[in-house]
Amino acid sequence: MYNMKTQTFIFALGTALLLAACGSGHPEQDSKQAAVETAPPAPPAPPATPPPPPVIRIETFQNEQKTWGYDLYLNGKRYIHQPHKPAVGGKKGFETEAQAQRVAERVAEKARKGIMPPSVTAEEVDSLVNVD
């Protein structure tokens, strides 16, 4: 059907097209491309720097009933105004300034740990108040 020259030409043309489709024909370029494609993934980004802890300041005060309360400031802004014992019934303040200071310190400790709102339980208040 085809003569030998035509068959050889078709075979050579097909081989050349096949080689052209499979690669550039330059071994160094093919190996560079393979190296780029198989490079290991970049290491993960380092974790974000955590925000600085809040600046906390406590001020105790004597209220109108001659009992004690406290204010808790976060970063210079009053965050809690507590004129009476928290977490217990009634509106009675602390009997001493030291009691108010101890409870305020516990609330501040929770705020430093990121516990928001920084509340205390009745049991915590009782254990801190009954130290005197």
Which structural class do you get from the secondary structure elements? alpha+beta
- Our count of domains comes out at 2
Strand percentage = 15-25%
Q: Secondary-structure element order, as H and E?
A: HHEEEHH
Description:
With 132 residues, the protein is an alpha+beta fold. It has 2 domains: 4-37; 56-129, no CATH class. It has helices at 4-22, 27-37, 97-112, 122-129; strands at 56-62, 68-74, 77-82. The protein has a 3-stranded antiparallel sheet, covered by helices on one side. Helix 3 packs across helix 4.
Describe this structure in a few short sentences.
By secondary structure, this protein is of the alpha+beta class. The chain is built from four helices and three strands; from the N terminus they run H-H-E-E-E-H-H. The protein folds into two domains: 4-37; 56-129, no CATH class.
Key traits:
132 residues; alpha+beta; 3-stranded antiparallel β-sheet; 3 strands; rod-shaped
Topology:
Blueprint: H1 4-22, H2 27-37, E1 56-62, E2 68-74, E3 77-82, H3 97-112, H4 122-129
Antiparallel strand pairs: 1-2, 2-3
Helix pairs in contact: 3-4
